[in-house]
């Protein structure tokens, strides 16, 4: 199992937590702890040998919460596939990568379904036997559109919702319904070139790198806690279209890496930042 | 020698240029040509075996100009060290790297002198027997300050002026005096985090990468044609100070790489962008 | 079109070649030329605006050959998809990547068919409507096994044969039948850890990097001209199995990049090395 | 302070160790623990707020040893500069980097002296006011040569000996005298191209990457536990000399990174491998 705890810091937290585990005979095979000096927030990730069922996890979660400050949050996660819902529009590159990894059981998650605001990617999902739901935005107000989406999501009770090039902006209400459960891949190395058509902006500026950012979605689509970022070099031969293609490659790679970190229980969020024990 | 030509494009330019060279018996050992589709601007870099003196270079330059469109610019560069002046403030990291490479004849350029608006780095220059001039900004207006600098620069007639963490903004008049001769290393991955204290901004945003940009200086300090950019990964354990240290490492590396490209005659500028034949 | 020429070097080759093109009104939009100093071998890649049909290409190819040394080889390639056959065993990662890119017309090549010495990947090919042929090695001698393969390949007359984790060693006779047409992805950063079970070797040595190499196949499976290599960092938490998974990621990325270079006509081979105009 | 412990694993070690610290009021601000599954070896690195003097460190070291298995090794390190001796031959690039960082107090270590088997780098050391000792190998047997070196080293009692392009092979006796204290930068991405003139080998093989390896020296010069490795891309334009220059850049970068890890107490050695908590 993996245990994730964050809390206000005080002397003795590691001893208190590890003593509970030692008394129950759990062997810690990997542990990372960090106290952020600017906020004095304590973060710990503990991986033990041995496995728990859900009832045992709940019991242990309660026991650990009992010895920790009231500000602490405690997760006890059995080693298990996360359940995810993927949302897309028309671009296939991130979805293709997820579907292939899922098909060969290399994703670390189980894709419950894919929701698209356009039907373009239905065919791809069918090829991998994954349910696809088309929810058109046209002809509805935003509340109606999002109600259509949430009614599908809520059937599946996913651990995470992955925006794999979902190109519509979701409302604050939608985002608030799934706090720290929505992961987005952003078509730029934030905070550069925020807004429409970043590759045209990048081309006109003559940049030598373009990047991508995977982040949790909070109330502002492009401003949530960053999980992972990476870049790819470009040069003068890249027009806006070729930059877009390079952008797809790096988006696919960044999203894959960020999801692996999240599915492995390696990412904490506190305020607007992440702590990643990679 | 290395020949650099840019021009409006037309059919037959490569044939015309290479025929001139063939007739004179020059062997082309490396050639790169590119036509930018958005501007139909033609760029060519030709490296020949054999060497020329200055008089021969001038002759060849005139002959090539004669067969090319009036919009063409032609450089014929003997293989020779570039002459540079380096400008600094207090941070040593870029200057140290340049001085070491220069000392061991690995820079591809000859440092004529170093000009600092603070005296902090004089000691370092003395250790490597390179002349250092302190020109204080205090107690003068900008015109007076810059006059002090240009009077030193103009003694040396450098090919390039390298702003190696020179932390004062130079006037448009200064920049216009040395067109496409001033190279700056910028403390960020442009266009992100423009302005003061980028590392504090980066820390507060929780980024996972920081970068640096080397660019020619035009009339706006941070907006000239980009020569090279690179990034370095950071994580949650980096506070603003540790980010600054990582920033120094990447600034040093990016400036070194950009200068190598420029000193090897691999960089063209057209409008606000570069073409780099690396 | 793209023109690829290699030849013994002499003064005037660029002028001769570009004059032929200029007379016919072809505009050169990108050109790279290089003379290898250790062999004085001349390499040139020319990209023109405009397109040719096969008959025109043949005519131009003959005209260029006529003005060049007898040692020259000349290719005139219309901009067109390459035809490829992919050979696999059981591992899907490289094939999945190729099939997805092919399906969305991003591969730069047309996959004619997939040949597997095990049937495992037939299902994947069917999902993407690509013909799959199972050719078992069991119960045949090598000549018989390879005859089964070549009879399929020769139906399709592919430009290239891609060994996408094909885990059997092909005979010198097979390789000689398709000179410089077979591309392999090798499970290591050559020349390190040649031989069986490289990830176990890498684990036992405690390396901090593992790599992959894409190369043309000549008479020795792991020793042909290298097209592209890249590495991925690993650390002490990687056991042999996790190294193998990281190896798959880098193999997939390296093969994709190498094929893009080959399909874009950017790779020359001379003796045991490549010249890559990337 | 930083505490480094390794031991055979058993349930309760983290609890036992952290309880000792909690009782004494130490706050753990960063902790990493790992149990290697193939050897069941336990590794832990603990960073606390607050500082200790040498006497307090010794006391705590004894107290921790008392509660741990007899196989455990315990280090309690006050936050302090490491003392190092640097050994060189003729190449300056690694030494220059170390001297600059040392001069500006960015190395994390104090260079006690430099020992060269040639006098070439004495001038450089003098420029940075660092003692240099020339110990010629000529005219002595190996034992005599090494006795000259050890007599200098032992005056300084360094924590580490850095072979910064020291090009002579040291005897097993020499290495055994300084167990896990000697760090070498190797001119290759081990295990590729072991032996003389690796860059010529790399050139002839036509590789697209070259690398460097920093490792502890055990009884075999090139085979000790690897601390860090990195590569740099090369291409067909790199002859053996240009590969050597690229090799210098990556050697310098790899050694700097490895030393930073060692000086920050982030590297464990067990048998022939390292565990690096970077």
TrEMBL record, chains A, B, C, D:
<comment type="function">
    <text>Catalyzes the hydrolysis of 10-formyltetrahydrofolate (formyl-FH4) to formate and tetrahydrofolate (FH4).</text>
</comment>
<dbReference type="GO" id="GO:0006730">
    <property type="term" value="P:one-carbon metabolic process"/>
</dbReference>
<feature type="active site">
    <location>
        <position position="222"/>
    </location>
</feature>
<dbReference type="GO" id="GO:0006189">
    <property type="term" value="P:'de novo' IMP biosynthetic process"/>
</dbReference>
<comment type="pathway">
    <text>Purine metabolism; IMP biosynthesis via de novo pathway; formate from 10-formyl-5,6,7,8-tetrahydrofolate: step 1/1.</text>
</comment>
<comment type="similarity">
    <text>Belongs to the PurU family.</text>
</comment>
<dbReference type="InterPro" id="IPR044074">
    <property type="entry name" value="PurU_ACT"/>
</dbReference>
<keyword id="KW-0658">Purine biosynthesis</keyword>
<dbReference type="InterPro" id="IPR002376">
    <property type="entry name" value="Formyl_transf_N"/>
</dbReference>
<dbReference type="GO" id="GO:0008864">
    <property type="term" value="F:formyltetrahydrofolate deformylase activity"/>
</dbReference>
<dbReference type="InterPro" id="IPR004810">
    <property type="entry name" value="PurU"/>
</dbReference>
<keyword id="KW-0554">One-carbon metabolism</keyword>
<dbReference type="Pfam" id="PF00551">
    <property type="entry name" value="Formyl_trans_N"/>
</dbReference>
<feature type="domain" description="ACT">
    <location>
        <begin position="2"/>
        <end position="79"/>
    </location>
</feature>
<dbReference type="InterPro" id="IPR002912">
    <property type="entry name" value="ACT_dom"/>
</dbReference>
<protein>
    <recommendedName>
        <fullName>Formyltetrahydrofolate deformylase</fullName>
        <ecNumber>3.5.1.10</ecNumber>
    </recommendedName>
</protein>
<keyword id="KW-0378">Hydrolase</keyword>
<dbReference type="InterPro" id="IPR036477">
    <property type="entry name" value="Formyl_transf_N_sf"/>
</dbReference>
<dbReference type="InterPro" id="IPR045865">
    <property type="entry name" value="ACT-like_dom_sf"/>
</dbReference>
């Amino acid at each position: 199992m993996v245990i994730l705890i964050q809390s206000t810091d005080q002397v003795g937290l590691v001893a208190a937590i590890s003593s509970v585990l030692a008394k129950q005979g759990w062997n810690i095979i990997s542990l990372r702890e960090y106290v952020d000096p600017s906020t004095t927030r304590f973060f710990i990730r503990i991986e033990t040998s041995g496995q728990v069922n859900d009832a045992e996890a709940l019991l242990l979660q309660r026991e650990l919460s009992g010895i920790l400050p009231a500000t602490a949050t405690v997760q006890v996660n059995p080693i298990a596939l996360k359940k995810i819902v993927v949302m897309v529009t028309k671009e296939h590159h991130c979805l293709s990568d997820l579907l292939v990894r899922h098909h060969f059981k290399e994703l670390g998650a189980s894709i419950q379904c894919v929701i698209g605001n356009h039907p373009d990617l239905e065919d791809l999902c069918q090829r991998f036997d994954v349910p696809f739901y088309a929810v058109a935005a046209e002809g509805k107000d935003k509340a109606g559109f999002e109600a259509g989406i949430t009614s599908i999501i809520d059937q599946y009770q996913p651990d995470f919702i992955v925006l794999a090039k979902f190109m519509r902006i979701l409302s604050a209400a939608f985002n608030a319904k799934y706090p720290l459960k929505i992961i987005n891949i952003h078509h730029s190395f934030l905070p550069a070139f925020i807004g429409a058509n970043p590759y045209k902006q990048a081309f006109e500026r003559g940049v030598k790198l373009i990047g991508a950012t995977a982040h949790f979605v909070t109330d502002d689509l492009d401003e949530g806690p960053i999980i992972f970022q990476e870049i790819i070099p470009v040069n003068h031969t890249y027009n806006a279209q070729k930059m877009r293609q390079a952008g797809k490659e790096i988006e696919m790679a960044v999203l894959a890496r960020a999801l692996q970190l999240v599915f492995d229980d390696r990412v904490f969020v506190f305020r607007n930042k992440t702590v990643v024990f990679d």
